[in-house]
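We treat protein structure as text, and this decision shapes the records that our systems exchange. The tokens are whole numbers drawn from a learned vocabulary of local backbone shapes. Below, we set out a record of this kind in full and without editing:
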Amino acid sequence: MNYTDKISKQVAAIPRSGIRDFFELVQGRDDVISLGVGEPDFATPWHIREAAIYSLEKGHTSYTSNLGLLSLRKAIGRYVRDFFHIDYNSSSEVLVTVGVSEAIDLALRALLNPGDEVIFHSPCYVSYLPSISLAYGVPVDVPTTKEDGFALKAEMLEAAITPKSRVLMLNFPTNPTGAVTPVDELEKIAALCIKHDLIVLSDEIYCELRYDEGEHVSIASLPGMKERTILLHGFSKAFAMTGFRLGYACAPEPLIEAMMKIHQYAMLCAPITSQAAALEALENGEAAMLEMRDSYHQRRDFLVTRLNEIGLDCHSPGGAFYVFPDISKTGLTSKDFAMRLLEAEDVAAVPGDAFGAAGQGFLRCCYATSFEELKTAMLRMERFVKSL
């Protein structure tokens, strides 16, 4: 049978994840120090795991509302009000999803008609472009630069807007660069969204992991933006809950209703055990979250200092747990650098162009790993660079 003819052209055109392809090479190698997959090296705090265990012991193994447990949605509403300074109706403007990835997919499918353009800044998380394409949208990539700290500039965004533009996707702090966009620039971006009637998907998954001065500001909190923004957030990064696969979306009721229509048929509801754990995280998880953030902050400072000492120009990212050093001075492509570093020194990092063409000449290093391994990895990387 010719299976090529049986597979959807839309799916066949989607590339495999550059991250996953690279790390298949690492599987089963105990000698490798991985600066790769973006996952906290902390176990989920015990009291959150205990809440999940307790929910199972109490026999809470049923479906929930399609929207999610009301108790969790109320907690999300309180958290979003206190952290983002935005009020949502927990009964109708909050949807609990299977990770932020599902929320992105739901939002794009709910908003797009074939041919609608979706603007996003790059380098960006590897799922954005495929998710847009799978929803029959047209991806429009706006490159960011090292010189601007990989922040999105309003003038670059405006140049990309056309009559077909429908959605803007934002992710600050950003994966893979750790970039944040200054509030004054965010205000200019918001003005463009209002002017051109764009809906914004604001992926806030790293928002608690901010290291510079000042609190995090979501574009959804700016004047005129709540009504045109879908705020996407979850528990994987700040609360070290990747395996629980739980996220949420906050938006005006008509947008949540549209997303819920897809969710109820594709997923029905997020797992009740994960929802119980998430409720505990929101109610009692701040202390553990701040402790983890402080540890990431120290590792960021160490890694940025060492990479610059090695001669790989690296800006200091404002958030997340990635650094994005410039390796172009070595004369190697991102993939060649990553492959040769892995072969020569058993250090795994992701080629920057896995996150889009704007990432060529860079390397993503995740510092959600132990301090001792980071120190060893930097010694090995320094030896490798000197050998070139």
